[in-house]
User: Which sequence fits this backbone?
């Protein structure tokens, strides 16, 4: 028991990295992809909500490796006509 979580009911929030064909989500910190056990942990896509220390460390490393000023590609415009008709 810890002072900040006396009942052990707080769950870690991992950063979602991969999704399998059955909908299982693998955490960024897992060495081998596997579904997160949702009884003991949860997942998120919000970087500021991650509580797993290993996921946070890997997110910081990813950000440091990005070139300065790089932007994620924009999604395709929805107002363009579909090429099939």
Assistant:
């Amino acid at each position: 028991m810890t002072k900040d979580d006396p009942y052990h009911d707080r769950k870690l929030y991992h950063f979602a990295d991969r999704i399998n064909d059955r909908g299982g989500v693998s955490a960024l910190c897992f060495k081998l992809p596997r579904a997160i056990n949702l009884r003991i942990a949860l997942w998120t896509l919000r970087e500021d909500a991650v509580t797993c220390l290993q996921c946070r460390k890997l997110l910081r490393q990813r950000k440091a490796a990005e070139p300065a000023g790089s932007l994620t590609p924009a999604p395709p415009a929805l107002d363009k006509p579909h090429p099939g008709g």
In short: Residues 12-65 form one domain. The first strand starts at residue 12 and ends at 19. The beta strands are 12-19, 25-27, 41-44. DSSP finds one helix and three strands in the chain.
